[in-house]
Design goal:
Helices cover 23% and strands 14% of the residues. It is an alpha/beta fold and 879 residues long.
Amino acid sequence: MYPRSMADSDCVLVMGSNMAECHPVAFRWPMEAKAKGATLIHVDPRFTRTSAVADIYAPLRAGSDIAFLGGIINYVINSERWRTEPFFRTWLVQYSNASTIIGDEYRDTEDGEGLFSGFMEYKAGMPEWPYNGFVGEYDGRSWQYAGTHAGDQGRVASTAQSGEASGVSSGSKEAQTGSAAAVAGGPPYDAMVASLVKVSPRRDETLRDPRCVFQIVKRHFARYTPEMVERVTGCPQETFLKVAKTLLDNSGPDRTCSFAYAVAWTQHTNGPQIIGCAAMLQLLLGNFGRPGAGIMALRGHASIQGSTDVPTLYHSIHGYMPAPTALKRHDTLDDYLRAETVPTGYYANTPKFVVSYLKSMYGAAATRDNQFGYDWHPKILGDHSHLPMFVAMNEGRVKGMLCVGQNPATSLNAKLERAAIRKLEWLVVKDNWLQETANFWHSAPEVKSGEVKSQDIKTEVFFFPSAQVAETEGTFTNTQRMLQAHFKAAEAPGACRTDVWFTYQLGKRLKKLYADSPARRDQGFQKLTFDYEHEDPRERAAGEPSARALLKELNGFYSADPGRHLSGFADLKDDGSTTCASWIYSGVFPAPDRNRAASRQPDPPGTPGAQLEWGWAWPANRRILYNRASADLQGRPWSERKKWIWWDEAQRKWVGYDVPDFAATKAPSAKAQPGAIGLDALAGSEPFIMKSDGRGWLFVPTGLVDGPLPTHYEPAESPVTNPLYKQQSSPVLKYWKRPENALAPLGDTRFPYVITTYRLTEHYLSGAMSRWNPWLTELQPELFVEMSPELAGEKGIRNLDRAWVITPRGRVHAKVLVTRRLRPLKVDGRVIHHVGMPFHWGYEGVVTGDVVNELSALVADPNVTIHEGKAFVCNVEKA
């Protein structure tokens, strides 16, 4: 969602985040909503500064989020108001897939003791590279809409982020007419898109069919009663019911709720499913595409959003398109496009996005005759993310590593990761200071203790000092998908260089190195376009590339006339005539003299606009995605108070305060065209244009590998048996079984307490950006562990004592903060204690402390391999 829109919320739920302390700038918008009368709710294991300003604080056990959210879903769909009010009925039947019939082969967790149909225990020989880490897998073919097959509803994504982008440019032919005539841009791919399977799902708009999505969802969450929520989460029933009632009371045609979350939702073995559960709840409440509605994914750094849009991720290329892989039928460009193109909805344009991307990679060398250079593009072999890469490194299968803006020596199961770094032949670290990874060879705890001798470490370490953010120019992409230009404020001292300088110079040197190579594998380097010389002679002489040239590459231009910028992604073609690195960024730099990321023109005070001239937000500068849903079936605003986008019959187009996220002249009454492709296959009343059926998905038939519906599983380490299902933890989580990565068995009395980790306002991540700052270290000088007075009393520990915190992977030493911010919770009939620790310390910097991530394990979610750092088990002993 658009963070500023949170100020228009009637209720804000913050869960999975301590927003006041970790995202204080964005927290101004919930506080503005509160000042206007909105209710602020905080759900968290700790009572924090966010809790202190909340109207309702609900404690819960770390790792039980789906049980809490699932209980709200059960409350909503069984409430009299929700079942009888026309607004909710329209959202359910017309704007979601609630009426869609699921195939007869599907079996829910209710039928399989916590397992969905299609489960297979992982066996040796299943495709892996070989470090994927799966303990089991699902064959999702039985999860499909009735009469269809896997992949028909949308591409089978390797990440939970597929479909994050949305929309059509308001100035495009397609946006003006609703036509899909230009979906594939002409030969050679228009016929291919038209030949792909087009889904016509069966529906029951009475919602009585036992195999329709609504009935499946209702049955799935029936066991998530208030009593069960209290039993699983430890949250008192009366508090839970107050939260549920408040959310429902503040949803409807005249009221909206927004949610905000951060890594305390993501860092679990079911992290994407927690987010999916929240999305399901918001769909049921009609809280998408409307002012003051939606879900805010809070990013913890100025351009974390940008680093996934223009990815530093192994599994996707620009604009959230899947990376070509050797594990699927991606042998040729045609194979890739057939596998990844969805013929209905806006993703029918995938050939245009991909071909324009390949033209950006290989320029004039990319032609129709050579599949636009597709064979030169790298293919992945499996999960190449952080955790499996360090497992491979530990086995000596990785020779070298470029470590730029990362500090794995203090990362997950940190001792294991440092052991892996010792197996490298070479290591390049580029950072602001000589942090722990750069100095692991002489300052790590195992070196200081004599367990490892520096002279036995054969890794050759190179350190490149980095320029600070204010010492370079470029753009940030922030939490709300907004690109904003930033400008150089100071020169970097000495030999410090920017990250983009390092990448650009490395690329140029690699091109030179491989220039004369006869090897076929090196043609990708030889053909790569890599010319971004700076306009300023002094910067050019220093080797700094041009931020303007890079932004132009992202925006796109006409291949035959590079000086002519693309006005937006509606200009893209699949015949090689357009070049565009990142389709979602097309439109940010529509002319050589118009960098919209540098725009700083606010709307007049008191107007309800979307601030369209302040920065530029992808896609197409729209601020609220799926905003067609802010109008009813006839295109009228749901209410005057929540007016945003509406159909103007006199002008025969969609108008409003934002860029419409819909075909601009497609009338609300327009019917879907049978057998059509692109947006022609969707009706004028179907707002979710990035989905193949134009509807929000309560039930997810494809795209997630751990099930079509959110389900409560216990964390990989838990002190309690799963009260909801026989299946204890996610049957398809990722775990790398190694002696130094042991997990505590269920109910292990040696590790009876739940531990969660978190951030402080004064420090950032491992502390590599903050523990060198004397002012910040004076504010937060020392590692500490939080525990309740009850737990401290049991352990004979007093405030400011020192304690050992112990897990099967390691132990750390910290000062004790005895505080009522943590409280005992009664879970399934027994008292469960939490401890909390910030993870900002290490063995370098102005202040030092033990590495809290020594305690964590390499265990992860199966969709995106996000680690489980927010809920595991430990013991505490007085030091």
